[in-house]
Amino acid sequence: MAASATPEGAAARIVIENCAIATVDANDTEYASGYVVVAGNRIESIGAGKAPEGLENVVRRVDGTGHLVTPGLVNTHHHFYQWITRGLATDHNLFNWLVALYPTWARIDEDMVRAAAQGSLGMMARGGVTTAMDHHYVYPKGSGDLSGAIIGAAREMGVRFTLARGSMDRSEKDGGLPPDFAVETLEGALAATEETVKKHHDASFGAMTQVAVAPCSPFSVSTELMKQGAELARRLGVRLHTHGSETVEEEKFCHELFGLGPTDYFASTGWLGEDVWMAHCVHMNDSDIEAFARTGTGVAHCPSSNARLAAGIARVPDMLAAGVPVGLGVDGTASNESGELHTELRNALLINRLGAHKEAALNARQALRLGTYGGAQVLGRASQIGSLEAGKLADLVLWKIDGIGHSSIADPVTAIVFGAAAPVTLSLVNGEPVVENGRLLHVDEDAIARTARDEAQRLARIAAGS
């Protein structure tokens, strides 16, 4: 690394060269050996061969020999708080898993949530995630500033972040799954969500923190909260997120309670549109997929979680063929204990090949697109991130592919998708290093691990004594 002072007002440059590059642009442009020049927080130029001569204010040159550069991974669905309840209810379907864990989750507090967010963010960032997302919907009374704790953890880590401020107002007494003491009132949820948006959402091009309105799911939220939540989001100019069509039990629940399938129910409450994305969408018929495509509604595909909870195989190839925006999600780490998004590239490809399309379901480049540009589309930021193009934000990852795990795979994209999880040599977010040689730069990983363990044990003691 070469460092030098830069003239006042001049953008510092980072030059990465001698690397394979997968841009994931509209033409899937790739370079067997090329360069990326970053100036400030933007990609300035990208191309084949050596970087241009005579660049000024270069503060760092990176020899990318033996590496592949891709856009940073974009996570579109997660529940950070579940980091401290991993490894529980491992043989349950979704509804039974929720019933088993809600009594524990309902006792989280600010310190627990902060520790869980640090663990979740750290694991993703080490694995190439540059834009993270958290759907947090459990706000027990007296638990502290949970949204602030999550946003603060992302800020400390240095990753770009969307908080989907969730809510629940349908508890057991109303036919829902959460305990009565774990939900908010309709009015309270709407007011707290609006306050969070006004306090934390940044609508600017290079925003590091954004907020979405995100009632949890049809079986934990009243119809009125769904309707008014959509109205609130559109009044404030932010995106909308919820769970949808995850299991056959959910579909049955919607028919019994609303007289409609999930997609028709969402349409009736204002929850289809280009500003909406749904998690899972496993059980979608042709009509559902057509409605999502027609309205531009996005999908967060979570293959590992869907398999862990035996939810089924989402029709991702059919969604893509219809024009539905699809990104990848880790989902909560109580249903995907690894907590890593780069493993979802491989799992999305493999699991979808078990479906109707078999080996033609997805290929390596489609999987990479799901984890990068597709995620950017789903979060409404495709003009800013998700591909390596001049003028876009400098969120990128340098994957090491010349080691024992990948060196005998000739194609670099095949190596990182089909092969073992590739080590991250360098990850930039907004032009700033966040991970180097597989280690987080801005936080103490060992301290995060200890704190998460301690908070998990504290939560288990509290839940056991309740």
List keywords for this structure.
nine-stranded mixed sheet, four-stranded parallel sheet, 466 residues, 17 strands, disordered N terminus, 21% strand, 35% helix, alpha/beta
Provide a brief overview of the structure:
This protein has 466 residues and is of the alpha/beta class. The protein is built from 14 helices and 17 strands.
**How many helix segments?**
14
Oligomer: single chain
The main pleated sheet reads as: 9 strands, mixed
Proportion of residues in β-strands: 15-25%
Residue stretches low in confidence (pLDDT < 50, at least 5 long) are 1-7
Distance between the termini: 55 Å
Q: Give the beta-strand count.
A: 17
Structural class from helices and strands? alpha/beta
Q: What is the residue-averaged pLDDT?
A: 95
Sum up the overall morphology in one term: globular
Radius of gyration, Cα only, in angstroms? 22 Å
Helix amount, in percent?
25-40%
Topology:
Elements: E1 13-22, E2 30-39, E3 42-48, E4 58-63, E5 67-71, E6 73-74, H1 94-105, H2 110-126, E7 129-136, H3 146-157, E8 160-167, H4 186-200, E9 209-215, H5 223-236, E10 240-244, H6 248-258, H7 262-268, E11 276-280, H8 286-295, E12 298-301, H9 303-308, H10 316-322, E13 326-328, H11 342-352, H12 364-378, E14 396-400, H13 412-418, E15 424-429, E16 432-436, E17 439-440, H14 445-465
Parallel strand pairs: 1-4, 1-5, 6-7, 7-8, 8-9, 10-11, 11-12, 12-13
Antiparallel strand pairs: 1-2, 2-3, 5-14, 14-15, 15-16, 16-17
